[in-house]
Every structure is written in structure tokens, then in C-alpha cells.
Amino acid sequence: MFDDDDKAAGEALRASVVAPAQRSPRAKAKAATKRTEDGLPVHSFQTLLADLATLTQNQVRPLGADGLTLDVLTTPTPLQQRAFALLGVSARL
């Protein structure tokens, strides 16, 4: 996300507590490159939700297998895996 993840560095750049907040060098680099430090694309909350919404669970019924169904989950992208890891949840249902 575009949030500043090094607020202490931004605070150190402020001349006083009443001066406008400053963004950290890491936040400026992230905004300029639109990439995180590990190379993943930076998202807003809305675009992250849209990306996560592409995960699906499909129910498959093989021909000739009476009543048998299989649930097939899509494989999460590296970005989706990272988002779930940060949330401390599994991408698997």
C-alpha cells in the first residue's frame, strides 16, 4: 500500500512538531517507482481488494464420476500471498 512504513524517518525530517509532516525517503521511493522494496506493485486499498477478489474456488465434476465433485482453488499470486501473510491468514479456504 502507499502508506509510509517508516514514519520515524519522516518525523526526523520535521523541523518542529507544528511543521507539516514529512514523508520518509522510503515512502518517496515507493511512490516514485510504484513498487515495494521487494518488487511487488503498490496498491491502494481498493485496487488491493480488486486483486484479492480474483482468487476463486471452482467446483469441478469429472465426466463419468457420479456425484463426485472436486473443489479447485486458484493459485495466489506472489502479491496475494504477501497480503495474506501480512494479515496472518491462509489463502486456502
Key traits:
single chain, 93 residues, mainly alpha, two-stranded antiparallel ribbon, 2 strands, rod-shaped
Radius of gyration: 20 Å
Number of helices: 4
The computed structural class is mainly alpha
Strand proportion, as a percent range, falls in: 5-15%
> Looking across the biggest beta sheet, what order are the strands in?
1-2
What's the overall geometry? rod-shaped
What is the typical, i.e. mean, pLDDT?
81
Provide the low-confidence segments as ranges: none
How many strand units?
Answer: 2
Largest sheet: 2 strands, antiparallel
Order of helices and strands: HHHEEH
Compute the separation of the termini in Å.
24 Å
Oligomeric description of these chains: single chain
Please estimate the helix content. 25-40%
Short synopsis of the structure:
The chain has 93 residues and is mainly α. The protein has helices spanning 7-12, 25-33, 45-52, 78-87; strands at residues 57-60, 70-73.
Write the layout of secondary structure elements.
Layout: H1 7-12, H2 25-33, H3 45-52, E1 57-60, E2 70-73, H4 78-87
Antiparallel strand pairs: 1-2
Please provide a written account of the structure.
- The structure is a single chain.
- The chain has 93 residues and is mainly alpha-helical.
- It has four helices and two strands, in the order H-H-H-E-E-H.
- A two-stranded antiparallel sheet has the order 1-2.
